[in-house]
Design a protein that fits this description.
By secondary structure, this protein is of the alpha+beta class. The chain has helices at about 10-65, 105-110, 110-115, and strands at about 130-135, 140-145, 160, 170-175, 195-200, 205-220, 245-255, 260-274. Strands 1-2-3-4-7-8-6-5 form an eight-stranded mixed β-barrel.
Length: about 270
Amino acid sequence: MRAPGVVHHGTRRRRAAYRRVVWSGAEVLVTVGVVLLLLVVHQLWWTNRQAQHGAERKVQALEREWGTPAPGSAAPDASTADGASAGTGTGKTGGGRTGDGKTDAGAAGQSSSSGGNSGQVRPRWSQAYAVLSIPRLSLRVPVAEGVSKADVLNKGYVGHYKGTQQPGQAGNFALAGHRNTHGEPFRYLPRLRRGDTITVETRTAVYTYTVDRTLPQTSPRDGGVIRPVPRSTVRPAYGYSRPGYYITLTTCTPDYTSRYRMAVWGKLTAMRPR
């Protein structure tokens, strides 16, 4: 008969140590997995829930505020740049010049000093001052001044690009919004089609734009899409060549990345006082 093998105490200790290392490593991997899962849930669900509820409350607050006319406020009239396209009610966008004879592109540089809407005080940085509605997307969301992530976009708001026009002005009223997380107001922006309507409500007026063109993908540095006469500098076949009354909606593309941007353009077709 063969003698049974002898297992030394040192071998047992090494095996026990090996098992402890493997077990500890497995525990660490499980813990990391749970943490990552919680982060994903927080980013994809909780931030959306918080931002969407906050945006809804802000829309309701603005509507309550507008229920009583602000002291000294007045509805826009056809003699201002804001009312240029709405005075006739025909949906025309007022040609290539503003009331003072300057081109729309020239008027764009005056947006920050003109204040956007007749009778409306220029919005403060990160202030919510308008409501954007897109029926096709079942979207109704606040518009705030600026495109800061912390102060505007991450709250589920849509942000107004500083230096672009205000609602109803000749030039380009340009907006940005998240496509994923933090309320993702522009989650379904690619669903917009030519002829869809976009409305922008302020304290004094309601502006209706009609979707006209879409730029599916461009560089994040393509500043041409938000110029007074919007035209892509990366893909020049997309955009316009004549002054008008435009709206631009921008967001990241494709889903869950910020590698590219997309833009949807529309033209002002109607305006009415509140």
